[in-house]
Amino acid sequence: MRIARRTRERIIQASFFGVASVSCIVLALIMAFLFMEGLPIFEHVSVKDFIFGTEWYPTSDPPDFQIFPLIIGSLAVTALSSVMAIPLGVMTAIYLAEIASSRTRAMVKPLVELLAALPSVVIGFFGMVVVAPFLQSQFDLPTGLNLMNASIMLAFMSIPTICSISEDAIYSVPLDLKEASLGLGATHLQTICRVIIPASLSGISTAVILGMSRAIGETMVVLMVAGGAAMVPGSIFDPVRPMPASIAAEMAEAPFRGDHYYALFATGMVLFVFTLLFNMLAQHIAHKHSQVGAATL
After folding, report:
1. Among 35-44, 70-79, 91-100, 105-114, where is mean pLDDT lowest?
2. In sequence order, which residues have a C-beta less than 8 Å from that of residue 144 and are 6 or more positions away?
3. Which pLDDT tens digit goes with each residue over 255-278?
4. 3-state DSSP call for residue 186?
5. Separation CA 207–CA 212 (nearest Å)
6. Model confidence band, residue 3 (pLDDT cutoffs 50, 70, 90)
7. DSSP for 40-98, written as a single string
8. Helix axes 201-217, 68-94, angle to 10 degrees
């Protein structure tokens, strides 16, 4: 019986190891394919010109493959959407975890989770038919498909991610920390600001970074509402073309294994590096602010 139990445990361990290994191998193959298809463009364009050049005209003669406007477009929509999404997401999480009644939490939390389940094409369509005309009429703009519209829609998508993970982090704060703070005479608001938020800062930081990662990698929404102009924006109402939108819009018309094709894969490499840096930053912050007992608060 003891041998059979050990055998079952080894089979289960081997199964989990096999699944994890397959996931790692598939990810490694995707990365290898991405870099294999993207690196050939640098035989015709230097890395410096590709990243810092401002001319993206892949169909002109000769073509220009310089993605600095695309990088700025991606960073701009990510930064502006984060300015909107981070305060709303974190404050909603604090409200649901610490302030709302159980009845209110039971009503609001499913709505927040429902927002996370909305398909991105639906959010993009909402931005096209509702938000774009509103921005165009209110600010007297030539078009409502611009940086501001894309940022609003990306913030709309990021808030559920930030809220859900932040709420889990706040719930994980040990109860004795809260009781000790209240027992010393602190108010509920002081306990939230000086005990609960510092104790859950690791999880909240991870939630923020993951929300930003989702914003910079989102494709459908920026393809539909960002305006599609490969230019460095001078205002929040200028149209932009982030990197995911360029890849999605141009890959179908790029000649197979031509320079345009390789340039789009190289753009994907840059996007992959940005996403990787965001995730590494999230891990660093989570490790740096990890809460181990009350002594580290």
Report:
1. 105-114
2. 131, 132, 133, 134, 135, 136
3. 888 889 999 999 999 999 988 888
4. coil
5. 9
6. low
7. GGGGTS-HHHHHH---EETTSSS-EE--HHHHHHHHHHHHHHHHHHHHHHHHHHHIIII
8. 140
